[in-house]
Amino acid sequence: MWYSGLENKRLWQLFNEISRIPRGSGNEEGIRNFLISWADKNGIDAVTDSIGNVVLKAPATKGLEKLPSLALQGHMDMVCVKKETSSHDFTKDPIAITTDGELIRAKGTSLGGDNGIAIAIALDILSDKTVEHGPLEAIFTVSEETGMDGAFNLDPEIVSSRRMINLDSEEEGIIYTGCAGGADIAASVKVRYEAAAGSPLRVKVSGLLGGHSGSDIGKERANAIKILARYLSRLPSFQLVSITGGVRHNVIPSSAEAVIMVPDKELALSTAETLRNEIKNEYAVSDPGIKLTISDAEMPELALKRKKSMLIADSLVALPAGVRSMSMSFPGIVETSDNLAIISLDESKFRIAFSVRGVIDSRKMELVSEIQTILDAFGYKSKVTSTYPAWEPDTASSFTEKFVRSYRKHMGRKPVVTIIHAGLECGVINARIPGMESVSIGPELRDVHSVNENLNVKSSERTVACLKAMLKDLR
After folding, report:
1. pLDDT at residue number 423
2. Going by DSSP bridges, is the β-strand pair 256-262/199-206 parallel, antiparallel, or unpaired?
């Protein structure tokens, strides 16, 4: 077994079992059944609510029954991304895991360490008879990656705790006490087709790192949709036959492609060569594998009208993507950003999906308004499909103070206490359950929401060991 040489075999056996269960957002039945079955085998109560969230409840160890209840929290679903050459079926295939003893990865797909490691950590703690703790709960939510539906609909009646440790962070040594809020935008514009004329070409942008549209947005990685639009906008004339890019609203697009009709093939090729050299230079550090390729395509019968094709390209160039502003209160933290996440074309409409994030809700919604204004100017119809609030730090939280002190004691170093630009469920759950106080931690987890996702072995083992030692301190 891949984890046979690792120290905390129970943790990794649990992670392996979790990884064998398909659990893309909206497909959490298998992992929910696993949790309920696991709880039954380990003498732990399991409760579910109407939307499918699961809460496990473990009694206090002897002598600590009077401690207030504490919750560990994570989400059941994962972002499903795979290499273009992969035949992996996320609805039925287990994640194929590999490790070099230092990092854990998946073969050709996202790993699902976000947030499978949270489930494994919580179950390891709940099943370790040597750990001293008061009443302990583990809250596992559904559909976090697609709008936090589980958190928004969590039944407060099934949660006893008013202190919560979220395990959905990705940097060891950092304690998060706040996060950005978010909003998703969907837009579309009607299209009409005409007879295709000219030379058919396939334009493809690939090899990008992609990543999480919250935690990785400040790394200045390329957005494949923006690179593709940049190329198309430089052509003096073309017709779109097809265009696609992006996979999830919270994933920075790592690939995009279009089939186009051009009147001057040589000009199209030379334009591509010029841009290819530009982007290789621009993204030499942040996206060294970036590629722009042009190849011949099959001759279609129909293509979009030239004017509409040009309008689509120009609109994608005009729309913002990436970091918009940095926080003045928390140095080094992105304050507002947006991800131009998904584009698609069908027989009647061209569609765009965005994800907008902001630490300050008013600035987040101002960016939403700006994007919608640009869309309106180009003739799109748009709407905000979902929003979630920012988690604002509680500087007077006694739980946070105790947690930071205990974390420093058992980890042996002073943690960084800050906020994160990614969205966490803490703010939603805090609002859902009056009186709830939260912090968020996690082990080193890199390049989530991408095929390069990797989880640090020693960091994960240190995190779970630290938590086990901390539990009796959090009185």
Report:
1. 87
2. antiparallel
pLDDT at residue 166, rounded to an integer: 98
Q: How many CA atoms lie within 13 A of 334 on its CB side?
A: 24
Cα radius of gyration rounded to whole Å, the chain: 24
Sequence-ordered list of residues with C-beta below 8 angstroms from that of 126, at least 6 positions apart, any chain: 42, 44, 56, 58, 136, 138
Geometric angle at alpha carbon 205, from 203 and 208, rounded to 5°: 170
Q: What is the pLDDT of residue 345?
A: 98
DSSP state of 212: B
- The residue to which tokens 């000219």 are assigned: 198
> What are the φ and ψ backbone dihedral angles of 328, each rounded to 5 degrees?
-85, -20
Give the pLDDT score at 396.
86
Ordered by where they begin, the domains of the chain are 9-180+391-470 (3.40.630.10), 183-388 (3.30.70.360)
Tell me the C-alpha to C-alpha distance, in Å, between residue 385 and each of 203, 291, 309, 382. Answer: 31, 33, 26, 9
Report pLDDT for 82. 93
Residues 6+ apart with CB under 8 A from 123: 14, 38, 138
**pLDDT under 70: residue ranges of the chain:** none
Q: What are phi and psi of 401, to 5 degrees?
A: -60, -45
Bridge partners of 183, per DSSP, are 356, 387
Cβ atoms of 186 and 383 within 8 Å: the answer is yes
Question: Residue 239 pairs with which residues in a beta bridge?
Answer: 261
The rounded Cα 356 to chain-centroid distance in angstroms is: 13
Residue 322 is predicted with a pLDDT of: 97
Residue type (1 letter), 41:
K
| Pairing, β 291-296 against β 302-304 | unpaired
* Contact assessment for residue 246 and residue 256, using Cβ atoms and an 8 Å cutoff: yes
Residues with catalytic function: 77, 144
**Omega cis (within 30) before 250:** no
